[in-house]
Sequence to fold (546 residues):
Amino acid sequence: MNHDATRSPERAAFGALSALLLAPVIAQGVWHPLQHVFGSAGSASAITWAALAVAAVVVLLQLVLPRRKLALSLALGSLVAVAARVAGSLGLPGLLTLICVDVATAFLVQWLLPQLPTSLDGLGKRHRLLTGLYVVLALAAVVSMARVSVFIGDPTRVDQQVVPGEKFLETHSCLTAYVHAAKLSQQRVDNLYAEQWWHGAHGLPPLPAGVENPYRPFLLDYYAYPPPFLLIMAPLAPLAGDFPAQRALWFGINGLLLAVGLWILARWVDGPGSHRVLLLAPVFLGSLPVLGTLQIGNFQIAVVMLSILAMVAFHQDRNVIGGALLAFAILSKISPGIFGVYLLAQRRFRSAAWTAGFGVFFLLLSLLLHGVSPIQSFLTYTLTRISSGEAFSFLAEGQFNVLTNMSLFGFPFKLQLLGVAVSDPWTVARRLGRIYSVVLVLLAFFAAYRQGDRRTQALTWMSLLVLSALQSPFAPGYVIIGLLWAITLLAVEVQSARGAVTLLVLWIVLTIVPHLSVSLLGIFSILQSAVTIGVPIWLIIHKRFP
Fold:
């Protein structure tokens, strides 16, 4: 280990923060799958806090005794794991889980500290007030991640979910749709998208009497993704029939992918002040939209990460990796397809060709594993229903559905909710959607010719990704994740109190869930949608943050 890194309190503290943030993610991602093999033991709360204890001990030893061998911290971490296993009656699954956390934390700190930029050194002394505020936010992120991990391990602990008291989040899991669709594809049913297979899903008829919900306490969600997306379900296949274990593993995979994506982009971005991107990564990770998306298991986080990492790979002339990542992202959620327009406009034909080639490969693999019916059904049945909004007929029903829709398609329904007369909101929404699509393509062409440094390029990619996701008739709050990530990059430019306040207000508007009357909440929802659409457009057109 680079001893200079351990002597830097800022780098040491950031390394410790990273380890503590990831410890609950690793623990829950491992614990339930191990219980699937060895049997149940212990509680989600006990395993989460024990994982934090193990990580804290390992980090402390790595920092206090940097010249000692890695084996020492591993051994003492294992002793803590054994003690926690006995004290918490965690059984063999708990012991193995904590040992995994021990090993992962030890190697993470050993590798991470020398990689951290020296620009972090001395920040604590130069900015004491900001450092104090950052410590509070960082600790809040650790606690929030730990709480959500408890709910992942034990869905009865609704007091630990991201927004306690919010009934929808207590029973909603997007992963139910993915797992159910994978099951239907294995059964080779005719049209796995047909509503007859999805009774009990939001907006569809309830399950027939006597039919048990295999995902309880979570309600079945509807699946509207392209069939190649189901390829990503392979790691969950050995846990078939054990949804809690699948949910926990999915949480762990997405949480680690998020951390990897944040790290790679933060180190790729260069220029003065770029260390701020790295510093704000834990705050971003602990934000309400990110934690909420991890909790419900939506694939949006992975799509954002894969798409941005693909563009970084293209920028580094690593077209094979970039093509594979972008092709899978496009075939998973369609919206990253805007980068195809972007690449062609930039005449990056090799990058586009690798993407197309991997797209064909994933399609063929999907055909081989799932047959022709899913792809045929998606193209002839589901795709038109998505574009017209028919697949999201529920979005006009109920205040929650209307207010949580961030897309331009949802504006007529919000106006109608506020008492504004809209003769036919569906017709108006479809017209707005068509206009929006044209504007989006024009913005992609404009963005392709925009010059700038790496950070500017990343801001452009994130903006396009957000705007493309908003093209869907129903775009829940998780589509703003790319915009929140962009705010951490904008922080590099802040040189005044005015700029800092502007970003802070923008962050608050995008992340808070105010308790207001229906009329005020409708106005606030319109404001959020306008900001979510307007800010990315502004970032593409303008070059600097004021």
